Structure formats: structure tokens, C-alpha cells
Amino acid sequence: MSRSIGGQSQCLVSRVCLTSRAALLMALVVACGDGSRHPSVLLVTIDTLRADAVSAWGEVQGTTPYLDALAESGTRFADATTVTPLTLPAHASMLTGLRPARHGLTVNGVATEALPVPTLAEHLHASGFQTAAFVSAAVLGAEHGLAAGFDHYDDDLQEPGGSVVRHERRGDRTVDRALEWIGQQEDSEPWFAWVHLFDPHAPYAAPDGESEGGRAGYLDEVRWADRQLGRLLGGLGDGTTLVTVTSDHGESLGEHGEATHGVLMYQGAMHVPLVMAWSGAISAAQRADFPQPGVVREDVVSVLDVTPTILETLGLGSTSEISAAWEADGRSVAEPLAGRVLPLECRSPSFYYGFSVLAGVRQGSLKLVGAPQSAEVDWVLNDISLDSEEVSGQVVVEHPLIQQVLSTEPEVEAPVIADLDQLRALGYVSATLSDAGDARRDPRESMDLVDAIDAANTLLVVGEPLQAWERLEAVPGDYRDVAELHLFRGKALRALGRSAEAVQELEEAHALQPESSSILLEWGRALLEVAAVTNSDAALEGASAAFQQALQLVPGETEAVAMWSLAEIRQGRPEEALSRLDAALDLKPQAGNLLLLRWRALKALGREKEALDVAETIQKIAPELSSYIVPSR
Ligand SMILES: [Zn+2]
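Above: the input record for the complex with zinc ion. Below: its predicted structure, written as C-alpha cells.
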């Protein structure tokens, strides 16, 4: 089987691995001993739900009556931590029991063809479960690699009858879909449903919320998500179901200078709720065992433990079998385990900003976090039981826990595949694949830059480029070596119509970060604008080259295909543009921007009849783009 001690596993990076994955899977397939069917399994992940926003955990009363009631009917893990505060990596860890560096999905927007070990869904599917996932955000789209083992993976975020690309789906719609599927399942067969609700994620705008953003707006979203959880639990019927509710990460809400989540690893972003409970008819044996009503567990556990714990509770492998089989970082926590050291890691500061990664551990109430790539590592030790806000942490130079911190270097490098604008719309600033020099900044000391860029991103999205520019102008000069800052300065300048200045900023960004496709795309767009004003062939050539390079870095990215085709049409090369667009449309036939450019290329070639057909298609599937189509004379 695949071994990965020391991070040198070759198996993990090749498809040879699939053979051993299959062997792993078969090893754990067992039927219920008494011939009865397994209970069904419901896993609900409420994205961005910090533990203290749940009434059962916090001082906030009445936000989460349904989750509170579930916690009373089952086991509540009072001290559950995520392994990393970011959606895709944390969910991948939850479904595999592996920490991000080992499964490779270390940040949002990347993809894998196959995770190195079978997921919870694959195990349950192999054991005869009908399986379905209902996700509410594009970051968890099937293309990222979590769909293995699911008979049905519902990542369709489109509004009913709508054509606008959506990045998230409201919880009520996701729950409607899940309830419909659950209602269709046969009584004779167990099912597994993973239902992901995205509502508490920023921006905070609950459908029935009264507050305007901020903490109150966040809590409105939590209330709304809890009501959807209530609807889901109410629709489970009498069949025995093992229910697990947790979150991928919390939300910092401004603590330690972090508005949302994804960079720092303080408790606001790391402490998550975790509840496991039986629903429906349960046997006396189940009642006496785990999870039991009214139990509150104080030992520290991790989202890494979710899959091993569910499998053990169902009798699909013991803790030792599961842990040994794929050397999971997670363990079954049906029973408390003494002395565990739980990994914490966050690669996004490096990936997004070129800062150091953060790495750390939890052991008991102790929490150690450091920035191992910074010049002065500054390991900070906190006792969470005494200081859950982590304001009085001690810098430690020598401490036994430092030796327990694992490498965050990915064992598997997952390529970036997301449309970058999609990530941006979700508040993940960009994917610049930063690779700064030797000693990097400590993200804990660089939140003024992160904050300024986040604020500028939001201001640009809501159409306030001047304010965005002023926010970026106020950033201290010693951040001039951060490519992301120049990227956002370029964006703001473009939005202000100052394209020539934008080109200069983006040239600087590109020089600092040549492997970033988002910088190349933005640079190309600025050059196109300059070319439109000055008729400069050199600017057009430059734009074309930038888009081409962006496409090489992220093959298939729709925006790069679209922009390069536009540049080529303007350069008088519609034939080349058309063949590239046709190839891209084979893969994404509904991509409105590609169809629009195909229409332009056909018009440029004088192929009026075909152009008319494309225009009709656009009118049907992307009517919001039809205003760009100039009728033939
Ligand atoms: Zn998330």
C-alpha cells in the first residue's frame, strides 16, 4: 500500500495509487453482522460557522434552536477544531481524514483527479449505500475532486430558470434538493447524503435578515442556515440515520485584524461545532453506544476525525483498522483519545500573498502556531482553556510541541483550475501562486495589507474604484514587493479609466510573480484598453501574448480563452480565434462569453448565417449578453 511517511510517497502522486485505493476500499467493506441494513448517514456542513455562534457553545442565545436540539439528542464535541480555515481543503480533509498537505487540495480553486485515499462517500458506496452530495458553493464544484463515490453530486447553483452564473446557492434551495432525493430512497437500502450550506459565508445578507452586515448580519445568516438544518432534519422520516453536523471553519469577524477567514488560525476561524446524533428509530445497542444523548465531550477533536468516526460507528472498520489502512491523520473519536497532537496548517497566506505559511498543533488545551517560512518564526503558545481569544500568547523558542509540527509542503501538487473571477466573487482575493523569496512575511504581522486588499476587492466589486484606489494608496511603502498589491492597484486604475498607468502596475506585478495567470489576464486587459485608445499594434501584441501565457498556466480557463480570442479578432486573426473558441465550447457549450466571441469571430469572417445561429443560442441561454449583439444590417 501507499506509504507517505516523510512526505516522500511516490504512490501519492501517480495513478498507480488507484490499485491500492481499491484494495483499501475492499478491506473495509463489511455488511451488518446481523444481516440488517446499515443506518443511513447524513453529514451536514454549515460553511463558515464559528462554534460560539451556536447557542449550545456560545453566549449568543437563540441563534440555532435546531442545532442545539440535535446536540442535546446526541454527542456534542465542545472543542472541535478544523485543520485549515478554508473551504475546499477543510472539506477534503473531512472526507478523507488526511490533512491538506497530504491530500493536496491545500487552497481553494485547485483540483485533483483522485484523492490519494478513498473518501467517506467511496467507503459507503462500496458498502451498499446510495450516495449523494448537495453543495452550495462553486469552490466545491465536482471538478475539484470531491465527487468520487457519490452516485449524485448536485453542484448546480443556477437559479430556477436563470442563466446568470452563480457562485453560491441559498440553503433553502439546497435543502429542497436534498429532501427530494432522500424522499426517493428505498427503505431497504441505506443512503449517505452530504449537505453543504454556504449561507453564513460573507457577504452577510440573509434572505430574511434585518441587520446590515457585521456581526449581527453574520448571526442572521447563522439563524437562517439553522432553520434550513431544521427543515432537513424534519424530513428524515423514521429510518435510522446517523447525523453529523459540523463546519469547515469559522469566521474571524475582525478579530486579530482578519475580517473573514482563510489566512490566520485563531480560534474564531478554527473552532467549529461538531455534533453527532441518531435520528429516527434506534436499537437498544445504538442507544447504549455512541453517539449518546446529552453527552458533552471536552477533549479536543478535529474535522479530520469525521470520516473515521462515522465508519467506526457504522461498524465499517475499527479505529486501528481505519487508521492503519490509510495512515489517516484523523481517528475515530467515538471514545476519547488521550494525548493526541492534532495538526493545524494554512497554506493560503503563501499561495495568495507570498507570505509564510502558518503551521501548528493542538494538544489538550494547548495551541501552538508559527510562521515557519518567516525570518523569525515566532512560535506562539496559547492555553485555549484560559484564553480562548488568544490575546496573551507566549512566544516560545523551545517547546516540545514545536517538534510535533508537521511540514505543510504539499505531497501532491494540485493544479489550479477555477475561473479566478469566481473565487474573487466569493471573497478569495486571487490565486497568484505566490513564490516569494527566502524569508517571508509573517501573516500575523501583515494583516494591514490583507485588510486593504480585501477592502479594495469589495469596493471594486460594488463599483467604488476611487475609494478602492485611495485604500491601496494608503498601504505602507514596504509592501511594494507584494505582487498582489500591484495587481489590485492595476485593477483600481483600470476601473478609473487610467489604463496606461494600470499597465505599469501590472508589469511590476508580473515581474514579481511571473507564474500568476490572474496578473497576466489583468495585464492583457489593460493593454487591450490602451490599444483601443492609441491604436497601438504593440499593445495588441502584448495583450495577445499575456492571454496566451495565462492560458498555458491554467489550461482551459474560459476567461483566458475569451480574452485571447478577443485580442486575435482585433488583430485581424478571426480564424485562429474561432478554432480556439470551438475547442473551448466543446468542453463548455453553455459559456456565454465564449459564444459571444464566437459570434464576433463569425461576423469578422463574414459567415452571417452561422453568426445568426449563435446569436439565437445566446438569446436562449444567456439573454443578459444579447445586448452586446449588434443586429445585422
Ligand atoms: Zn468554507
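Notes for the reader.
The pocket of zinc ion is lined by residues 47-48, 87, 248-249 (CB under 6 Å).
The chain has 23 helices and 14 strands.
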